[in-house]
Amino acid sequence: MSKLINCLQNVCSVDVTNIIVGDFNLPSIDWASLAEPDDGVHLPFLHFVNELAFVQFNNEPTRGDRILDLGFSE
Asked: Mind listing the pLDDT tens digit for each residue in 12-46?
């Protein structure tokens, strides 16, 4: 996760609007309440999203009862 976040931080350091989409396979993040387990995968990603003020657009489950396919913009 740290390599992904470093890459995304580099991309987001350019002064343009950024859109990030993909299957992030982070099933334990509750996007409605921004709650996550305190682990080395979910927590760092949610901190990255919050730190850069990204908005997550998917509100409906994309796989079973989980939101795995995510779309963000800042």
From this structure: 998 899 999 998 888 888 888 888 888 989 999 99
3-state secondary structure 1-39: CHHHHHHHHHHHCCCCCCEEEEECCCCCCECCCCECCCC
Rounded CA-CA distance 29/61 in Å is 12
Helix H or strand E encompassing 46: helix 42-51
Residues 24, 70: contact at Cβ < 8 Å?
yes
Query: Residue 35's beta-bridge partner residues?
Result: 30
- 29, exposed or middle or buried, with CB in 10 Å at 0-12, 13-18, 19+? buried
- The amino acid that residue 71 corresponds to is G
